[in-house]
Amino acid sequence: MHRDRRVAVGVEIGREKATVALIDHHGRVLQRTYARTLRGRPAPATLEPYMRAIDTLLASAREEGLSVCGIGVGIPGALDASTRRPQQVSFLPSLNGFPLCDLLETRYRLPAQLLVDVDAAVLSEHRFGAGKGYQRLLFLTVNAVVGASLVVDGQLEPLGSHYAGHVSHLVVAANGPRCSCGKHGCINTLVSIDAMQRIVQRALRRGVETSLTQRLLNHEYFSPQLLVEEAERGDCIALQVYSEIGRWLGMAIAKYMCFCTPDVLILGGGAFYTSDPLLLHIRNTLESQAESAQPELLSAQLGSDAVLIGTVIPHFEPPATSRKVAEAYI
Known about the structure:
Layout: E1 6-13, E2 17-24, E3 29-36, H1 43-64, E4 67-75, E5 78-80, E6 85-88, H2 100-108, E7 112-116, H3 117-128, E8 136-142, E9 146-152, E10 155-157, H4 187-190, H5 193-205, H6 211-217, H7 224-232, H8 236-260, E11 264-268, H9 276-289, E12 296-299, H10 306-312, H11 319-327
Parallel strand pairs: 1-4, 4-7, 8-11, 11-12
Antiparallel strand pairs: 1-2, 2-3, 5-6, 8-9, 9-10
Helix pairs in contact: 3-10, 5-8, 7-8, 8-9
């Protein structure tokens, strides 16, 4: 039986480091390495550690007799699809407007693909994860900011025709905290780590007893993971955070679904955002606002590899399909 030896190189650019991997057409990460993210430098110097990592994996692929069919790069920010350039990467401004795909194709003689991280994640969840078999899939991720992406019949569907502005600035509470965009009550201000800290601080000021207090006094870093651990122990403040964040996310999701009408909504963003308690609160909020049948609400399955795997999917698609992925950004 003929064995498919095709692989592609996936690159996920992160704030502290980039992950670079060889990935096969089944979405399996065969080999990975990491490259430090260098800030405050011109684009060529910024990219050099990433390209050294790509060089290493390409050499490994040749030794293994693998056929490399392309390079995919995922960025946190925005891109210009017509020029295939990053448009806004907040922590690496030197890459904004830089001809990244042209550089990679010239250096490696391989086709290059550039994707926004949330779009790469939804492609991978649709192909290999929780979204397999669904026609209309809405993916919502909560990390530093809220991101959303829609796949219809296997293709990225732009949200811009339905919603003006970044999805993280969807107003959920008109009297909520002021956002950096100037508005009040954007979803991004209500489900962020800062929002979680505000909930905890309000409870502490009321004198609520909680094991969180001792952990914070011991200089533990406040994080969603800390809340997950305390919620599993039944801590009342951690459970309150789940309740409030779930309510706000449920209200935002209800609005997203009005213009996306998905068959399934997949929530990603780490252990806190994909936990059963949070999903329960979101479902309760959606049911209380439901005017019609609700889509399934599922946790993302591919975890931290979702973006990485999604960057290479276009390289295993027929040419016409790959063009449609790029056109979704225009």
